[in-house]
Amino acid sequence: MGSAVITARAAATFDPVGRSVATARAFVRDTLQGWGYDEVVDDAVVLTSELVTNAVVHAGTAADVLCLRTEDGVRVEVSDHYPEREIPLQSSGLDFGSPDREGGRGLLLCAALASRWGVEYTPEHKHVWFQLDLPERPVGIRSAGPVLPTALLPVADERVRVAVVQTDSAGAVAAWNDDAVFLFGHTAEQVTGKQLTDLVAWPHTPGTDTGIADALRLSRWEGSYGIRGADGRVIPVYASHLRVRDTQGEPSTVCLLVRDYERAVLQSPVRAPVSDASADRRAVDPFEVFIGSPAPDDLDGLLQRTVERARDMLDGDAAFLLLATDDETELEVRATTGLPSARQRFARVPVEAGAGRYQSARMPAVHEDLTVVPGSVPLLVDTGMRSVVTVPLKVEGRLTGSLGVAAESAGRYTNEEALRLQFAADRIALAVESARLGELERLRRGSLSFLVEASDLLAGTLDRDQTLALMAQMTVPTLATWCAVYTIADPYAEPFLSFVLHEDEERIDGLKDLLSSIAPPDPVPTPGARVWPAPARAAQEAALRVSTRTLARDAPLSMGAAARTTLATASAVGGETVVLPLVARNRVIGMLTLGKPADDHFRQEILELAEDLSRRAALALDNARLYSERMAISQSLQRSLLPPGTPDVPNVEIDVIYRAAGEGNEVGGDFYDVFPISDGSYGFAIGDVCGTGPEAAAVTGLARHALRLLAREGLGGPAVLERLNAAILDEGARSRFLTLLYGELWPQEDGSALLKVVCAGHPLPLRLRQDGSVEAAAEPQPLLGVMDDLELYEQEVVLEPGDVLLCVTDGVTERREGTRMLGDDGLAEVLSTCTGLTAGAVAGRILRAVERFAAEPASDDMAILAMRVPEPQDF
């Protein structure tokens, strides 16, 4: 230390454990305060914290701390026992790299804060030392200072007068001393009982957001405001407030006021300004050095560094930082140190505290003993902290967050620490808000992309079960650890647990059992997420029962698989659980339940994103429900248009293949039917209504039922079709023309079959003989539904044993691939290869030929009716 005379020394050794860092900070703080070096305590504590951390955490050795006092300052040496010979300096000069990196950060702080510093190496030790010079103390503050000549003392115009004003719990003046009468001109009788705020001309210290009404409720406060005198003039004053209570417990506030230019009488000492001689060396903002320099978009890193440095600055045992929501009604825990962060992160507390708490987070506050009012700071409940100081983070008058430092001992902090922490919070508030807005913008962009993708996925299915699965898969693990979807079938039904998903598939069954054992959440239509404590409570109770039984058996190692599953489920479900209503078309159709693991919370942005998702999912789920209901109705009606079955015709094989075009259609414009008419005779039909879909299906139903009814009345084929034609025309604008092949079948005793056929505008039936020849089995006649007067006739066809009659609709013959079409010739060619096949095999070969002809799905309905007279069996 050159020629400086050492007047005192103090030394201590700290074990290589994490707690030693806090102990070393306390040692240096107590030592320097005992020497009267309050001006350099903060810098010394911060530097010691970094260097001891390097020793006990990074080097893993004990740390020796030596404090040396001189008349001009203090020198602190920190030594570890990790041998190192290379000095960490680059050939081009001092280079510590990024301030974010852990290595070298202590030396960076030394370079920024210390008057002088250095590193010394030996084979067994490494010494890092720094020198802090005492700044010159300005005259007139309440702290020890040098003895000054009378001429240098502050000048007062007259005797310094200190007004003493006491207000009751409502802010009304209860006491007004003689100096107050002298300064302001109001007598005690004139002001007693009036609100002090009525006498205040401008209500707060310029440059701050704390009004006089707020200041009167704080435990301690210092600042400036103006009092309007009896003559109407405004007297600027500096005030020091102290809130006390009488023996009956009634609170009141004692205010000491002096003229503003005499504020040195009351003003608490503040950190001395940096001297000009060291201005260049200390151009770095001290609090910016405390927090390091995280990347501008690294909000979590910035917040974590802030709480760590705030704790170091006030030598606390814990620190926390909360960010305000957009509406400034709640604060969300975003960074802590010295507290169980996993339990506290993203927990929310109100900005305006309720009964029994310390007013509002919008104002600085010193909590001297939290055990006096249990629960006054919810964040610190059951943490062992007894005293805490909290200050707001504000940007342009708007609350953006709250910064707090806590200690395990009571009465640790005073108004002085609150002022120092507020100064630090004011310096960091804008950087925090800028990083928060950057993170929010990135989250919103990601949320928009997420919602667009979710909308596409939900719109891509109309299946209810698939929609439920998509809802859960989109939330886990992106938004939550687990998810459950409850559905409500109708307004009077109970919610039903329809789908459960956990990011760990092995826990799904346990989670499902747990949720099934408790009552579902109430289907409240109020938008937004609401906390549902039942799953966490049920999980804790189940875990407690398992633990109790295990301890009773005194054999925890023999715990069964079921018990282990219960404990795992309790851990997975023990965090925050929220419920979002699924509302579609002004009706609650279900609930989306999201959960976190034990002691974890949702952040506000995630809940807002989940709310947006729930609205989209609700509409998709309701659309799937409506589609399923309508599909069920449609399919039921369509099935009624199909014949109940193909009758067994003696000595004749009959097989039918039917394919309706369009999604979800079972019946379209093509239809078929085979039915008994009377003993020994059967009717068959195959037709094609113009178009496809429900309108064509309606005409299909009319034609099929009319054919059966008319045929059983004993009418012949031409008469049946003529009456059907009249019925179609009677439909008016809903009518559609119809091509129809209708015939009657009589099995003969000689093994053949007699057919009488009428082909009304339909593709001609084809007859396959045993020799492989194919020929048309009827002649074309006019189609139905176009002309009133029809003259139709029937033709007889005899099928010999081995012969096949093939009847198709134009969906078969008009099958296209580009400009090619299968056509009648192509169909005849395929049929010619079916000699010797059964009726079912013939129909199947025709269908495969049609499907292979073109790669694209069929755009028209298809019906294939094959009838074959089997050959006699040889015995």
Automatic annotation (TrEMBL):
Keyword field contains Zinc: no
SMART domains xrefs: GAF, PP2C_SIG
CDD domains hit by this protein: HATPase_RsbW-like (cd16936), PAS (cd00130)
Top-level taxon in the UniProt lineage: Bacteria
GO biological process, one term: regulation of DNA-templated transcription
PROSITE patterns: PAS
Residue ranges constituting the PAS domain according to the UniProt record: 158-200
A GO molecular function held by the record: phosphatase activity
Keywords: Hydrolase
Matches recorded under NCBIfam families: sensory_box (TIGR00229)
Entry protein name: GAF domain-containing protein
Native source species: Streptomyces nitrosporeus
